[in-house]
Structure formats: structure tokens, C-alpha cells
Amino acid sequence: MAVSERMNATKGAILSLLTDAYQRRDRVGLIVFQKDRATLILSPTNSVQLAQRALVNIPVGGKTPLSAGLLMASEILKRESYTHPDVEPLLIVMTDGAGNVAIGDKPPNEEAYFFADKIAKNDIRSIVVNMEHEAFDQGLAKNLADHLDAPCYTLDELKAENLYRTVKQEMMG
Q: Is 27 helix (H, G, I), strand (E, B) or coil?
């Protein structure tokens, strides 16, 4: 239940970001990583309406193929850099950091850190939003952020309006 409440707060912040992105003609994509795969539920677009529809049914809970999500994100960002070279990407990863499904032979978190390191080496600016409740936090989202060379924020630190402001500041450089 707490995860669902945190996800609703996050969705509100994402909608604020999307509205701002639309006004600046930025493009936003959305990947959900759940069960045994990552799924692109919104190809990079500047349509707030499409993004709002994609956000409505984001599933919460279950297994976390974090590696698959990071790999898909890096592939999409690479493709976008070719088709829109003037756009500076910003990857926002909302996770508790506990990857528990691997796509290869490595342990899930080790594999996720491998992909995170690759993203960081490609100079893709990232932000990690720790979705774990403070009482249960094992520091896994922070570890992921360290591998991405990114700041790590908690929802409690940010709340919807602060998340929006913080991410907007990150986008400004």
C-alpha cells in the first residue's frame, strides 16, 4: 500500500514534468521494468496526452528486472541521440534498487551496476529516485546512483512539488 501511495505522488510529479517538457518541446519516454522484462510503454514524445495515458496504468510491485530497464533505456537514449542530436538526455530511474531478475549470467544487482556504469561512461545525466520506504531501505538505490554517477533522492525528501523542482533544476544543468 505504501508503495502505491508513493507511486501516486511520483505520478503527480511526472505529470508536472511532462507539462513543463511539452512547453519547452522536450521529448519524454517511459519504460516500465517488471516481471521478467522491460517494456517501453511510451516512446519518446512531446505529447503530454500520450504520456498521461501511459502513466495511468503503471504497474507496481513484483519482480524487478532492473538490468533490462537500464539496457533498454540506454538503447533508446542512444537511438534518440542520433535522431535528435540537439537534445540532451536526462535519465530518471525510479526504483528501490533491488534488481532481482537478471538477463544474463551475473547476479541481478551486479548486472544492473554493469549497465549503470556503461550509462555513466556515455555521459548520460541521470537521477535516481529511491522508491523504498525509509524503514526498509538497504541503500540499493544509492548504490545504483553511485554507479550512474547520479544524485539519489527519496520521495520523502522530494514529495511531488519538490521532485518536480529538483528534476527541473537537474535538467537546467
A: coil
**DSSP secondary structure letter of residue 160:** H
Q: Residue 80 contacts by C-beta under 8 Å, 6 or more apart in sequence?
A: 27, 29, 44, 87, 89
Q: Report the DSSP pairing between strands 37-45 and 28-34.
A: antiparallel
Host H or E run for residue 4: helix 2-24
Domains in the chain: ranges and CATH:
2-172 (3.40.50.410)
Residue 155 cell numbers, joined: 520521495
Task: For the chain, give percent helix, strand, coil, nearest 5.
Answer: 55, 20, 30
Mean pLDDT of the chain: 82
What tens digit of pLDDT does each residue of 84-115 get? 888 888 888 888 888 899 999 999 999 999 99
- The single residue listed with the C-alpha cell 531501505 is 137
Angle at 141 between CA 140 and CA 146, to 5 degrees: 95
Chain centroid to Cα 30, Å, comes to 8
Q: What is the rounded CA–CA span in Å between residue 123 and residue 47?
A: 26
